[in-house]
Amino acid sequence: MVRGLLLPLLAALGLALSPAVAKEAKPKPYEHYVFGKLNTPTPGPVSGGLLLMGGGDRNIDSMKWFFGKAGNGHIVVISASYGKEIGEEFFDEVGGIQSAEIFVFHDRSQSTNRKILDRLRKADGIFIAGGDQSRYVRYWRGTPVAEILDAHVAAGKPLAGTSAGLAMQGEKLYGAMDDGSIKSPEALADPLGPANTIEGDFVHFALLKGIVTDTHFKERDRLGRLFAFLAKAQVGRPADQPAMIGLGVDESAALAVEPDGSGRIYATAPDGYAWVVDGSTLRGVTGRGPLDAPRVKVVGVGPGSVVHLPSGRVDNPVFERHYAARAGEIVEVPRWSLAIHGGAGVIERKTLSPEKEQAYRAGLDAALRAGAAVLDKGGAALDAVAAAVRLLEDNPLFNAGRGAVFTAEGRNELDAAIMDGKTLKAGAVAGVTRTRHPIDLARAVMDNSPHVMLARDGADRFSVEQGLEQADPAWFRTEERWQQLLAWRAKQQAAVDPTHLFGTVGAVALDADGHLAAATSTGGMTGKRWGRIGDSPIIGAGTYAKDGQCAVSATGSGEYFIRESAARQVCDRVAWKGESLKDAADDTIMAVGAIGGDGGLIAMGPDGRPAFAINDLGMYRGQITAGGVPATAIFADEKLAD
User: Is 499 one of the annotated active-site residues of the chain?
Assistant: First the structure.
């Protein structure tokens, strides 16, 4: 009697009964639809393969590929959302199969139904429909259905999936367990947060091992969230295992994967692609907050491409792009990038003749092209900065190599340094007198000696031992620099050319593998005495590079750059204070200026965006990125980068 009174009352109040009182509602029965005849022989041989579909209109040719893999026999479709319309499409519209049988699940208990399991075991091909992928996780993970899917693929039978039916096939998957679908901004804002529900231990397909998949890719702007999926999926992944990769498929595309792992695109639109995301730079993400990934490689798989799974290698890709994730957004960054400088000074347009300005820009342009030629062929950043600086050392307009300034004794004493951001190896030389390209000698110190810096007579001897090109001291002499020394001797002033007050050349680069490097070369200061050495060859003062942070080459009043550890300071501000590269470069120059120093620096970040910082001076400078043309600047009001 009490129960009879409570039911209407609770219903009127909109309240539910407690489990002890309420009777559990029975799940909706599974749906079953059949098109064609189930007991006819399979006409052709059955072979393995995976058809990974992006969720849009199905490409007929890709479906015929899948049906052919199934011997044009019996296809079983499993779903948790859609009904008989798939069977109508497969059997009546595409055709060429003996039967299409559909099972629509409405509860986990149905994953042990003997009839369903028997039909799945006998299927020539299994198709996983789209819908709510969280239902697939709840209904099928850890059940005989999941076991049969694994066994089906392992036995060399074909399997296809579209939308959610693809998204649940990787080693790890986004489960959408919060009954929603996370979007890229939300996922990037907190990749390790609870809304990014990454699941595992579901299906175990060898060709998708180490892969996270996603669908409706380009159309729903899902690249950012795939970055976040990979970041969370790799938390705790053993270091000896390769990085996971992401595989996104556009709505108009279907990726047909052969048993050997080679996959080709079928598409209903010319720009229907699959996207392969390299997860190596998305490992090691810790803590809550926005994803910070300065360089993520993404490769496009188009109709003329071949992708090899599970490695993710792509033959003839339609594109290779790099992206940076920062502050909840992603932006495309260049494949490689190079920036150079040729010294700083009080450079105003009235101080340079048009002819000399043109000559300076031509020299910068040539150096940029030399470094770019290395990078565009896939060369290392280390080789590119050396190539650019070598051109500037040979150009008498710049204070490095030929055209270096004279010491008080009337000698050319040359300094140079180079640093590899990948390994943190570095080499430097100071006071050398006979090596045509001091930057090559610095590189030899790094590569072929146990030391970082060699100086004066010892460095000259090492250069000869290394077989580097030697030059008579007269090679470095120019009449203009000699006249500057004579003027210095007459007036005893530290520098007499205000347009080249701080004469140094340098380069910073990012290569296609994401590695950074920096190089600097200089003749020092006119009238320098007592074996003076400035900041250029001192690692951390005038030259520094570290992958993932920045590469820096400086020019200026070296004593102040040394005291501020200027080059290393830029990188530390990025790494430890979270400053943007531009802010870090500007703040460092301000710190140098605060103690009395003047000059400038160039810096390159892992996103390929250079920064140029000068304190109220001009600076001979330039930049070039993949696919672009050289850009140069001289005067303080010229802009090269944001």
Answer: no
pTM above 0.85, yes or no: no
Per-residue pLDDT tens for 404-448?
A: 888 888 888 999 999 999 999 999 999 999 999 999 999 999 999
One-character DSSP codes across 129-187: --S-HHHHHHHHTTSHHHHHHHHHHHTT-EEEEETHHHHT-SSEEE--TTSS---HHHH
Q: Look up tokens 């539910």; give the residue.
A: 16
**Neighbouring C-beta atoms of residue 576, cutoff 10 Å:** 9
246 assigned binding-site residue: no
**Is 190 assigned a ligand-binding role in the annotation?**
no
**DSSP state letters, 382-412:** HHHHHHHHHHHHT-TTSSSSTTPPP-TTS--
The annotation status of 142 as a binding-site residue, yes or no, is no
Residue 555 labeled ligand binder: yes
What does 242-304 look like in DSSP terms, one character per residue? PPPEEEEE-TTEEEEE-TTSEEEEEESSTT--EEEEEGGGG-S--SSSS--EEEEEEEEE-TT
pLDDT in tens, 92-120: 999 999 999 999 999 999 999 999 999 99
Q: Tokens standing for 11?
A: 């219903």
Give the CA radius of gyration of the chain.
33
Indicate which residue of 407, 433, 504, 522 is catalytic: 504
If one counts every other C-beta atom within 10 angstroms of the C-beta of residue 388, the result is 33
Q: Residue 389 phi/psi, 5° resolution?
A: -65, -35
| The token pair that represents 163 in the structure block | 């939308």
Chain-centre distance for alpha carbon 353 = 43
> Judging by DSSP bridges, how do beta strands 337-345 and 618-625 pair with one another?
antiparallel
Judge whether 535 is annotated as a binding position.
Answer: yes
